Amino acid sequence: MDFDIAARRLQKDQQSALARSRASRNARTATAKAKREAALARQKAEKRLREKKLESERNARITDAIARGVRRVERDLGVTDVGSSSSSSVKTDVVVPPAAAAAAVAANPDKSSLLFANSPLSSGWTFAATSIHGDGDKIALPPSVLETMTSNANDLDPWGSGRNGRPIAFRIGILNPDYAFPSSDKMRALVENARQEVISSEKIELAQKTSSASEFSNDGSTNEDMDDDEANDSQITEAYLDELSHRYLSYTHGTVVEFTQENECVGLPEPIARALLQPNSHSLVGGALSGRKNHIPMKRTVDPAPSAVKSDVANDESNVKSDANDAMDVDTPNNRNDMEDVDTSERTPGHPAYGLFDVPALPIEITPVNSLRPGNNCTFTPTASSIKNGFYSLKDVKSVLEQSLMRTRATLSRGDIIRTWRRGVSFDLIVSSLTPTEYGAVSCINTNLNVDIGPPEGEGDATSSDVGNDVLKPATETTNPMGGGRLLSEPSSPTKSQGSMPSPIDAAVESIVLPPEPATNVKEGVCNIQIRGRTPSGNSAAGRRRFDTTTAIMSDLFAFASQVCDGLSPTAFRLVTRFPRRVFRVASSDGVGDDCFAANATLESAGIGQGQEMFMVETV
Questions:
Q1: What is the chain's mean pLDDT, rounded?
Q2: Would you call 498 helix, strand, or coil by DSSP?
Q3: How many angstroms separate the CA atoms of 175 and 181, rounded?
Q4: How far, in Å, CA of 325 to CA of 533, rounded?
Q5: Is residue 267 within 8 Å of residue 143, measured between CB atoms?
Q6: Is 15 helix (H, G, I), strand (E, B) or coil?
Q7: Going by C-beta distance under 8 Å and a sequence separation of 6 or more, which residues neighbour residue 534?
Q8: Which terminus of the chain faces fewer neighbouring Cβ atoms within 10 Å, N or C?
Q9: Is 427 within 8 Å of 396 (Cβ atoms)?
Q10: What is the spatial distance between Cα 617 and Cα 620, in angstroms, rounded to a whole number?
């Protein structure tokens, strides 16, 4: 009995010892596994930290390489970053909407836009656009900008007393609300090239750490990098300009005429506003136009001052049912027929031009550019309307361009439209090429600029089909080695038009050569006539000319109006005056009536006497 009890107790003790031994062995095994797993997890975490640090350092080197390249180009161009030193009264921060950033990342598979918290491009002042008088490229800025420019932090001289003797130019661009850096293909390719170069250098550095010659190799790396930077300058410049074409919906260049604008406003003359709102294939953003919508929101500024005659005009216009095109009469806020409101004294450059023309409704960025290259050569391409107006018939093209270019322009940008005038007729010329070609813009100050006349714009398209083929080709005896144009020093040969004649009245008017204007000292029987209307494309047009009312006939008046409106058919419009309203039309001899006059009727017989008259062009 006692033996059985002892045997069972011994068996139980043995089982307990075996269980404790097994548990101890399992515990030792679990501890070793846990240690191995912990060590593996720690290695993975350290690897992730190293990779994250390496990626951060790599991204920093990439962004630094791109920023250095951009700074090098902007330093060469003389671009000044005024974003950090601008006056508090001027908005300068360009906020990229989250949707725009997300769209940029989605469009860029390598997510290069995530590398740049801020764009390396220099930022300027951001303003709302207003319209001012002026025939050239001179804008008006707020006084706060002058204070910022002349401060010790910037030391920018707007009047050109610096090293190159030229006034500071400004890059004038409509900011793209959907922009995020980088957006252009060339800039993305540049970022990717920088990434590959950084990765290659990392591999080289890693190999050098195990090599006894690593110190020697590192000593020579700096000069090699500098040589590579210089070799890539051309690629960086192209990428920089390509990126600007995405940063802005359109942009051009100009200088300042005065610092009198209200804070947060920039005054744009009509040529600058037109270059921004109507970019063409030659424009600085021409390559990016095909990839986005071309519609740019626009507006017209309104005179904030109360008008004393506003109610009178409203009452009068409610009684007179006019054509819908009366809406083009916006250049005088009160629609007065008084010639004082269109006198040249009221058109002083830089002064407000309320409602005269459209200006961009989006923010305008103004960036100082201090080192625009002096221009050597430029090519002007006449538009189809200029050819129809007889541009190639001008015998003094050089003097016409000198008067319009030298007196109104301080800069030229590719795609700008230069409007020249000759005897009350306008001729639009597109700046199609410039030399130096590097930045697509040049300075016209203190330089000798050679001008070529290039082949016609839109040759062979519908807008020029009414003009004979011999008119579409420049009639020159001297061949221009640069292309199909001609130099200003070459003689201009008159050409003939062989277009179709839509009606006898059109044929009679188009065949008319306007009589010479009376001498300036002659007042008797002379009427100073101004024409205001719109071209067939919808642009505002205006012209002024003196007529001898005793000898000039109605066909002369309508021919002048047709030329002002870029060849608008005389049968498609009538001329009207306001207060009192009078209507003038040209009709055949059997169609003469109350407001229809024979083409050969003198101005005096039609009731147009000595003095001054302003006619509005109304389409019928």
A1: 75
A2: coil
A3: 13
A4: 9
A5: no
A6: helix
A7: 325, 328, 540, 541, 565, 617
A8: N
A9: no
A10: 10
Give the pLDDT score at 308: 44
Could you tell me the two tokens for 79?
């671009």
CA geometry: angle 396, 397, 403, nearest 5 deg: 95
- What are 569's two structure tokens? 């058919």
**Furthest CA-CA distance within the chain:** 159
Q: Which of 145-159, 484-498, 526-540, 541-555 has the lowest mean pLDDT?
A: 484-498
List the structure tokens of 490. Answer: 């070459």
DSSP code, position 28:
H
Measured CA distances, 603 to 397, 490, 526 (Å):
31, 39, 10
The H or E element containing residue 43 is helix 2-77
pLDDT at 562 over 80: yes
Tokens of 16: 């307990």
If one counts every other C-beta atom within 10 angstroms of the C-beta of residue 357, the result is 20
Q: What are phi and psi of 428, to 5 degrees?
A: -95, 130
Q: Could you give the CA distance from residue 491 to residue 242 in angstroms, rounded to a whole number?
A: 39
pLDDT score, position 399: 67
Cis ω before 515 (30° cut-off from 0): no
- Output the DSSP codes for 172-216: EEEE-TT--SS-SHHHHHHHHHHHHHHHHHHHHHHHHHTSTTHHH
* pLDDT of res. 370: 87
Length of the chain: 620
Cβ-Cβ contacts under 8 Å for 10 (sequence gap 6 or more): none
Distance, CA of 454 to CA of 521 (rounded, Å): 39
